[in-house]
């Protein structure tokens, strides 16, 4: 029997029991901890002698450190979130695009022409306030106030998302 096999024979069950307690009874996780502990012991086999200190205490300390490292790494990772229902990679179909255009078009009709043209320049032509002001030949402050007022009207006129899904 090799020195490593003797080490496993002498301390294996105690190490697994200790790892099980550290992992609160999670047997699979405890086995992973023990396996990692044995790997580290195998790498340091030349130092695994009683004249250098308690081998069992060294094994227990290594197992403890592995569990602490796992705990810390789990806390450092972001929390997992549930995937939304349905296919998150689905692309809206042509019918959805038509519906969106009809809804947006009818809601934009509720705006005064000056506000509508400002919203179109800022959001649909993707211009900055300064760029829209230059195209519309108005001051930048006028563009900002028109957009603000237009968005207030649009929020009031736009149907709720649940109403859009039901349509």
Counted up, domains total 2
Beta-strand share of residues? under 5%
Beta-strand segment tally: 0
Question: SSE order, as H and E?
Answer: HHHHHHHH
CATH architecture of the largest domain: Orthogonal Bundle
Compute the gyration radius: what is it?
A: 33 Å
3D structure, described in words:
The chain has 167 residues and is an all-alpha fold. The mean pLDDT is 84. It folds into two domains: 3-76, Orthogonal Bundle (Rna Polymerase Sigma Factor, Chain: A), CATH 1.10.1740.10; 94-166, Arc Repressor Mutant, subunit A. It contains eight helices and no strands. 71% of the residues lie in helices and 0% in strands. It starts with a helix and ends with a helix.
Give me the secondary-structure topology.
Layout lengths: L2 H20 L4 H17 L11 H22 L17 H15 L4 H12 L4 H8 L3 H18 L3 H6 L1
Helix pairs in contact: 1-2, 1-3, 2-3, 5-6, 5-7, 6-7
Features:
Rna Polymerase Sigma Factor, Chain: A; 167 residues; single chain; mainly alpha; Arc Repressor Mutant, subunit A
In short:
By secondary structure, the protein is mainly alpha-helical. The chain contains eight helices and no strands.
